[in-house]
């Protein structure tokens, strides 16, 4: 199956099984044909692999393109309202979109675009009242076409997928138009133009804004007293002690040139040797260097894979190169001093950045550490509250698989003793997207009674 064929399936898949009118209220047929005004348009474009697709449209530009083309097509089809129209329905539109690439999810992804995951939601409003909510089924990637269309032009293909998105939004709006017109007519029956216009007014909800971190002036935010014991252990003449230190470093996120220069020296002193003990130390030191996530040491890990004569060490070094690619992304987020706060210690600042990163693994680690060591920290509690408030009600692709994290966040807030978080947990118990999160929110809201 070619990727152009899958493009046809994309448009068809988004429309088939769309939200049904059968479960909605029944209204008398109306000859009114409403027009539309886009009140809010949002598009969350994620990517399955942050290292791929660098030559494609950035998410912000893709959103502008889709929104611009959508408005143009609505206007061309006579569906877009102008200032003189009275029978107007306001639309809130959200496009949930994940780019995928050939081979993603395998050890050998390639920088070739393939079918996206996508879901479209369109909410039709009359003022604050929802006339109709349309949600397309999730378009999942077509199975068995991993190599299909390898020679297609990705620049053209990305525009084709985005164009299919616009067309799907237009067709869904057209399909729902009669039902929405009937509902609009029923809700405005007997009202004059002035009253209808007044009924369209809505309450603008202020956006939930996270307080902006102050930031730190220096990247040397980790106290030297924290790193010093590791430096001393690596200077030991006892090989086993040095290896144990390398192992201990795997569970840390230190930003220290002095420390990792010492680990790099360990690697360089041992990786060309053939003695089994030297090879063993080189393996663990190379792993510690890769796990640091510090880009400046990547070339050393690459040299180990290319130059060592030991096959076991070569195999591990190749594996650590792939691991290091993931860790570099994490380390950049964790060590971002621009999002740190002087009121927090270095560990709390790292945990805060882990939460802010959006990465599921880092968030899981952070929330459990907060529960264990920082359960009364007002800054981190507020950050967890903000994340729950802005994410947990929505079943977005970007946050897929993070139900455990949200549930833990409910636990942390519930045992904090701060009754100010009870309204949020009560709300989560009713409106969180995940059943597990609703269960935990209800349970831990009770602890704040």
Strand residue content: 5-15%
Mean pLDDT: 89
- The CATH C-level name of the largest domain is Alpha Beta
Number of helical segments with 4 or more residues: 16
Strands ordered across the widest β-sheet: 1-2-3-4
The profile of the biggest β sheet is: 4 strands, mixed
Number of strands: 4
Q: Can you tell me the residue ranges where pLDDT is under 50 for at least 5 consecutive residues?
A: 1-9, 11-19, 141-151
CATH-assigned fold name of the largest domain: Double Stranded RNA Binding Domain
Helix content: 40-55%
Shape: elongated
Number of individual domains: 3
N-to-C SSE string, H for helix and E for strand: HEHEEEHHHHHHHHHHHHHH
N-to-C span: 58 Å
Description:
Strands 1-2-3-4 form a 4-stranded mixed β-sheet, covered by helices on one side. Strand 3 and strand 4 form a beta hairpin. It is 51% helix and 11% strand. It has 3 domains: 197 residues, Double Stranded RNA Binding Domain (2-Layer Sandwich); 111 residues, Leucine-rich Repeat Variant (Alpha Horseshoe), CATH 1.25.10; 106 residues. The protein contains 16 helices and 4 strands. It is elongated and about 90 Å long. Helix 8 runs parallel beside helix 10 and helix 11 packs parallel to helix 13. The chain is α+β, with helices and mostly antiparallel strands.
């Amino acid at each position: 199956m070619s990727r152009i064929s899958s493009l046809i399936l994309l448009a068809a898949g988004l429309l088939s099984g769309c939200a049904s009118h059968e479960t909605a209220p029944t209204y008398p047929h109306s000859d009114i044909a409403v027009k539309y005004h886009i009140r809010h348009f949002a598009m969350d474009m994620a990517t399955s692999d942050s290292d791929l697709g660098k030559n494609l449209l950035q998410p912000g530009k893709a959103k502008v393109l889709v929104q611009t083309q959508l408005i143009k097509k609505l206007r061309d089809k006579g569906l877009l309202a102008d200032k003189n129209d009275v029978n107007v329905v306001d639309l809130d539109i959200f496009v949930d979109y994940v780019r995928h690439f050939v081979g993603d999810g395998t050890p050998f992804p390639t920088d070739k675009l393939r079918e996206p995951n996508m879901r479209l939601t369109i909410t039709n409003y009359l003022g604050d009242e929802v006339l109709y909510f349309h949600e397309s089924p999730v378009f999942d990637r077509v199975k068995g076409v991993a190599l299909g269309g390898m020679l297609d032009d990705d620049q053209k293909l990305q525009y084709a997928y985005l164009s299919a998105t616009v067309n799907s939004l237009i067709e869904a709006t057209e399909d729902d138009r009669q039902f929405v017109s009937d509902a609009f007519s029923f809700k405005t029956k007997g009202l004059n133009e002035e009253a209808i216009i007044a009924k369209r007014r809505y309450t603008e909800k202020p956006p939930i804004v996270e307080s902006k971190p102050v930031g730190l002036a220096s990247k040397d935010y980790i106290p030297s007293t924290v790193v010093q014991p590791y430096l001393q252990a690596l200077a030991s003449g006892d090989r086993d002690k040095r290896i144990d230190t390398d192992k201990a470093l795997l569970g840390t996120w230190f930003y220290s040139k002095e420390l990792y220069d010492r680990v790099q020296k360990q690697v360089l002193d041992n990786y060309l040797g053939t003695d089994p003990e030297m090879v063993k130390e080189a393996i663990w030191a190379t792993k510690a260097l890769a796990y640091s996530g510090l880009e400046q040491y990547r070339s050393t890990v690459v040299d180990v894979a290319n130059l060592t004569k030991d096959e076991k060490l070569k195999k591990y070094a190749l594996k650590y190169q792939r691991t290091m690619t993931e860790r570099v992304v994490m380390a950049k987020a964790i060590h971002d001093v621009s999002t740190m706060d002087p009121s927090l210690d270095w560990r709390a600042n790292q945990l805060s950045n882990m939460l802010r990163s959006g990465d599921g693994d880092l968030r899981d680690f952070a929330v459990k550490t907060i529960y264990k060591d920082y359960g009364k920290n007002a800054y981190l509690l507020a950050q967890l509250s903000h994340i729950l408030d802005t994410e947990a009600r929505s079943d977005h692709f970007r946050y897929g698989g993070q139900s455990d994290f949200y549930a833990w966040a409910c636990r942390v807030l519930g045992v904090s003793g701060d009754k100010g978080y009870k309204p949020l947990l009560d709300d989560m118990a009713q409106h969180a997207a995940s059943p597990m999160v609703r269960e935990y929110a209800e349970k831990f809201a009770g602890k704040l009674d």
